[in-house]
Write a structure and sequence with these properties.
Oligomer: single chain
Number of domains: 1
Distance between the termini: 62 Å
Shape: elongated
Largest sheet: none
Structural class: mainly alpha
Number of helices: 4
Helix content: over 70%
Radius of gyration: 18 Å
Order of helices and strands: HHHH
Length: 101
């Protein structure tokens, strides 16, 4: 890989990639965080943590000398949380045997 293409890959992982992955992580966190007493902790905490997640992804992409490690971490988080969200959307309720009127 040429130095120019490595630079652009790093820019894509640090810029729009970090934003997109942080949003997907936020959506996936609502599915694995516990609900809490009020029932909204799993919704509020990801919203509050999005800037911290974005900053972590941004600085990791900028400061890690190995671009492969940046790609593995970012795409791994994207795949795990994207899979959680996709599974939730594709989850169909089991028919109870009654026909709705």
């Amino acid at each position: 890989m040429s130095p120019t293409s490595r630079k652009w890959c790093r820019i894509l992982f640090a810029g729009p990639g970090a934003v997109i992955i942080a949003i997907v992580i936020m959506a996936g966190m609502t599915l694995w965080l516990p609900r809490g007493v009020a029932g909204i902790d799993n919704l509020v905490l990801p919203l509050v943590l999005v800037p911290l997640i974005w900053a972590g992804l941004f600085f990791h992409a900028c400061l890690d000398p190995r671009l492969g490690r940046v790609a593995i971490v970012a795409l791994g988080l994207f795949a795990i949380h994207g899979g959680l969200v996709a599974h939730k959307f594709l989850d169909r309720p089991v028919p109870s045997g009654e026909v709705p009127k």
